[in-house]
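Dear colleague,

As promised, here are the two records you asked about, laid out in our usual form so they can be pasted straight into your sheet.

NAME FIELD: protein one
SEQUENCE, THEN STRUCTURE:
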Amino acid sequence: MGWLDSWLSDLEEPAPRPTKKIEAPREPEPEILHVWFQTRQPTGANDAGQVELGRYSVSNGVLHIHDEAGKTIGASYRLRDGDDPRQTAARLAREAWRKSRGESDFNRPLHYQGGSFA
């Protein structure tokens, strides 16, 4: 072993320099808005019907439906010119609500107003 090899073996390796992890800029969390939608119509004077609360947000022209925890669920819709976000959110929230119940209202009772049919 020569003098150069011994000198090189005595040198310490420099400590690795810490690197900063560059994070991509995050978009701010969208504001979650609320909309009420009708799930059952009123049947008389003592029955007010039924409504449910839907949650939605609009980000970059796309409307997203959220669950109670604020997580985005599958329903989303790209808004077009002239679309009312609140009305669209009510429609999508109602569809998501129906899917989550897993049942059809086909065999529901039908309530008719008093009167005669010809």
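NAME FIELD: protein two
SEQUENCE, THEN STRUCTURE:
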Amino acid sequence: MKRFLFRLEPLLNLRRLKEQQALETFAREVAEQQRLEAELAARTDRLEQAVAANAGLSARELAEKQAFVERRERERVAAAERLALQTARVEAQRERVAELAREREAVERLRERAHERHTHEEAQRQSAFLDELAAQGYARKAAEA
């Protein structure tokens, strides 16, 4: 039986490699997103703590506290913006992974069809060979008789 050879195997391997690399990048982006979510939660907690106790403070202390609260709020807003950007990067990478998977699957479908065609052609060749052997055997028996 003739060995199956897929001419686009290097392309398929390249597409698999690109998809794997995209998945690794996606995993890093998701990890960064989770880190930023935790940072945002921590900054939100710090802001809530900074806002909490105002009783018994002098006017100067209230002004200092207000400046501190405003700084915490700016930090929280900046963290929220970084998280929004990271979320967009995660979504873009998710789409990239899906696109690369579709491209790989298209080449894999071509490979499967080529393999099926190869198997069918080999079966036809074997059938023709066996038919020829049977015909030769019949002809030999007829010549002997």
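A couple of things worth noting about protein two: The first helix runs from residue 9 to 52. The helical segments are 9-52, 59-144.

Best,
R.
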